[in-house]
Design brief:
The protein is of the alpha/beta class and 368 residues long. The protein folds into two domains: 210 residues, Isopropylmalate Dehydrogenase, CATH 3.40.718.10; 129 residues, Isopropylmalate Dehydrogenase, CATH 3.40.718.10. The protein is built from twelve helices and twelve strands. β6 and β7 form a beta hairpin. The protein is globular and about 60 Å long. It starts with a strand and ends with a helix. The structure holds 3-isopropylmalic acid and magnesium ion (MG).
């Protein structure tokens, strides 16, 4: 039997340094659990542009289509701000999502007990928080046509189009209901059906999928703006939130911040099953490339390490090993290890990216 394969795309900014710690965790599983992965590495984002003149080389795209899972660090940086739109680092990521057809983006917002005081909200509002945002990732206003900047009379007009087909809504709704069954069994769907026809259709299709196949799951609908407000007011009312590409982008950043640090949160982007039964999949931290601290060893590798935990769970059917890794992270936080993004407690000195990675390996060793 061949080993499962992983393509690592560290990308830009802090991507390479956090990915280095993930590599150590991947190797740990090979050495200690016998879970050996075939790991290859390639370029995406600004660094791919510097090397190949494109944020994602065709050969890299091809590789991403072949492997069992892609692990991505982060893309972007100020050096690329003035590039043509189609050459920007972000286009590399968007191309991966689109061509792999990764329609279901899972963004958990989970509050680690040791970090509850880092939230901008009161501790009782966030402690124990565990919600999952399912963001549609391959359609909507991010990709809808027509788009562009056109001349109209004597001025320019910027155009983007929100567009959803029934089947696009149907499949992401199913992902959300399936997930909910394995969690708190509740889905809240968010759109703006009060002002957008695409929102009217969204609500209708989600309700239909529910009534036909998921009546056992509790379903509610909320306008996305009210949803944003409720997320800040009492986030624990939610279990799974399903929403479109743009609302999901905004709501997931807000939800992430409830937990105290963007440096903690992983994500999975899943598509249809491949021939071997595994879903097409890309895993990445929710945080960006943080160019201001890149190369300084200050970055928090936990979001990227937890993204690998999601890969263990959703691509490799190793839920127990994912639990083991998440527990290791939980325990180093409980022991007081803090990277610079998690400071605030008195008398705590920050650990480096590498020290945090090593502490997690030590915690993994302690589980053997
Ligand atoms: C995200 C990011 C991306 C997005 C950018 C980098 C293209 O904000 O993954 O949430 O807008 O989807
Ligand atoms: Mg975003």
């Amino acid at each position: 039997m061949t080993n499962p394969s992983i393509l690592i795309l560290p990308g830009d900014g802090i991507g390479p340094e956090v990915m280095k710690e993930v590599r150590k965790v991947i190797d740990w599983y090979g050495q200690n659990i016998g879970l050996v992965f075939d790991v290859s590495e390639d370029l995406v984002g600004g660094i791919a542009y510097d090397t190949h003149g494109t944020p994602l080389h065709d050969a890299t795209m091809e590789k991403a289509q072949q492997v069992d899972a892609v692990l991505l660090g982060a893309v972007g940086g100020p050096a690329y701000d003035n590039l043509d739109f189609g050459l920007k680092p972000e286009r590399g990521l968007l191309r991966l999502r689109k061509e792999m057809d990764l329609f279901a983006n899972l963004r958990p917002a989970q509050c680690f007990n040791a970090l509850a005081e880092f939230s901008s909200l009161k501790k009782e509002v966030v402690s124990g928080l565990d919600i999952m945002i399912v963001r549609e990732l391959t359609s909507g206003i991010y990709f809808g046509e027509p788009r562009g900047i056109i001349e109209e009379g004597n001025e320019r007009v910027g155009i983007n189009t929100q567009r959803y087909t029934e089947s696009e809504i149907d499949r992401v709704a199913r992902s959300a209901f399936e997930l909910a069954r394995r969690r708190g069994n509740k889905v809240c769907s968010m759109e703006k059906a009060n002002v957008m026809e695409s929102g009217v259709l969204w609500r209708e299709v989600v309700q239909k999928v529910h009534d036909e196949d998921y009546q056992d799951v509790e379903l509610s609908h909320m306008y996305a703006d009210a949803g944003a407000m409720q997320l800040c007011r009492w986030p624990k009312q939610f279990d799974v939130i399903v929403t479109d590409n743009l609302f999901g982008d905004l709501l997931s950043d807000a939800a992430a911040m409830l937990t105290g640090s963007l440096g903690m949160l992983p994500s999975a982007s899943l598509g249809a099953p491949m021939a071997n039964g595994r879903p097409k999949a890309l895993y990445e931290p929710v945080h960006g490339s943080a160019p201001d601290i890149a190369g300084e060893g200050k970055a928090n590798p936990i979001a990227c390490i937890l993204s690998f935990a999601m890969a263990l769970r959703y691509s490799f059917d190793e839920g127990k090993e994912a639990d083991r890794l998440e527990a290791a992270v939980e325990s180093v936080l409980a022991e007081g290890y803090r990277t610079a993004d998690l400071l605030g407690e008195e008398g705590v000195d920050p650990v480096s990216t590498q020290q945090m990675g090593d502490a997690i390996l030590a915690a993994l060793n302690a589980t053997l």
